[in-house]
Design a protein that fits this description.
The protein is α+β, with helices and mostly antiparallel strands and 194 residues long. It is built from five helices and nine strands.
Length: 194
């Protein structure tokens, strides 16, 4: 919307950008009892790939001669999704909830860690709306395994499969990921008040 300012200018501004607007941009968010009703979380993780380990994404094993190194089972996608959920709910990150120095989490099933984190998010009154993920690795290819991975994540987060997307990318031969020495995952999760 274009409004003429008192000084004669006609610069378009989005609602909330005007310094005189006391409500601000945050007031445009849906609210319940003064609290925001939606929140977004971003999760990221990176693991080296080493021989003798399974290559897991959301608990789904992909054929590979190397797998993720880690204190737990190393499931890079489950870790990124866990961080996205916890961040959106304001509950910290995976390292706070499951410290890597704690022997209790040695070789832990990362999908179980995700379930525990999701339980804490639900207890705070949040539920996921959708999840968008990117897995970056040179090999194995993600596309042939995308549907089982989506189904596994949707089941844990009590979402329809259509609300979960997992994309596979390469790093075009650049850096440790591009040299097939590591795998990286990013996840963005939208939460709403339950």
């Amino acid at each position: 919307m274009y409004r003429r300012r008192r000084d004669g200018g006609g610069i378009p501004r989005a609602r909330g950008q005007c310094p005189r607007n006391r409500r601000g941009a945050e007031a445009a968010l849906p609210r319940s009892a003064g609290r925001p009703m939606i929140r977004v979380g971003l999760g990221w993780d990176l693991h080296r790939l080493i021989p003798g380990r399974r290559f897991l994404l959301a608990g789904v094993e992909l054929p590979s001669d190397r797998g993720e190194a880690g204190h737990s089972d190393g499931d890079v996608l489950a870790h990124a999704v866990t961080d996205a959920l916890l961040g959106a709910a304001g509950l910290g990150d995976i390292g706070e909830l499951f410290p890597p120095q704690d022997p209790a989490w040695k070789d832990a099933d990362s999908l179980e860690l995700l379930k525990t984190a999701y339980g804490k998010v639900k207890a705070r009154g949040w539920r996921p709306v959708n999840l968008d993920c990117v897995v970056i690795c040179e090999t194995p290819r993600i596309l042939p395994y995308r549907e089982p991975i989506r189904i596994a994540l949707a089941a844990v987060l009590e979402l329809p499969r259509e609300a979960v997307l997992v994309k596979g990318k390469t790093n075009e031969g650049l850096g440790p990921v591009g040299e097939a020495g590591a795998v990286e995952a990013l996840a963005v999760c939208l939460l709403e008040r339950a």
